[in-house]
Design brief:
alpha+beta; Aminopeptidase; five-stranded antiparallel beta sheet; 9 helices; 35% helix; 28% strand; globular
Length: 294
Amino acid sequence: MQTLERELIVAIRPIRPDDAERCGQIAFEAHRDVASRHNIPSEQPSVEFSIALVKAKLADPNARGLVAEYANDILGSVFLNTFPPAPVAAIGPLTVYPNAPAGVGQRLMTDLLGHALAREFGSIRLVQSPSHLESLALYAKLGFVVREPLVLMQGKCPPVADDPARVVRLAVEGDIASCDRLCERVIGFARPSELRNTIRQSIARVVERSGRIAGYAAGIGMKGYAVAETTADLQALLAATPQMPGPGFFVPTRNGELLRWLLQGGLRMLWPAALMTRGSYQEATGAFLPSIAF
């Protein structure tokens, strides 16, 4: 009965800058708890990493955060991320203190979904760790559907055979319109804001085949994404990328050709994940790599 009373009076409010350290601590402990139970590397390797992530979200004008509070103590947090002008919202991270009463995650998600729907986002996405069955059950109950099983992979990608018709180079501002059209064909919508940011950082790359853009990568890593007409185009982008930053990058496991090439090249799998969506979704018509957001 005491747990039920706590559930009923949990308050949801917007996150504030002074919540960062507490939310970061909770995020670290929540991920450490899941990782230790399944003997996998934690998605958030240190308290400092977790706090920095929360602070980055607070500084992002396109992120909206909520916290759950009981008796002036924060129990968890969640963020809604948008990428104007993309008509898609992405949820994450959602983290709840391991000993919090049941229902805190659902309260946070319900309130955040209400905000997303009020802003008329027709597609809401997230990347979920299947090792955490509680969150998989929660998202499924809230209407999310698994669209792509993923695996986080780490290592330097192997080389590809020379092909005079296929050239990889750094992306420039003048490539954005062509990349947007390609992205719309492959996954159904464009992601120009992320591409523009990575072009400014000199990390975005395009692959040209017979003189036209056949794929591009807005960074390779958990925060980056890539789309290409074919797996061979995507392989060329990966082979031209230096050692990946951070813990790795997500690979759709249904792309057996790409997964086999990476494994044969010596990359290793760290942990499984799944791209889940609520609302509209277009099956990819080419090869792609999702980001941690979507």
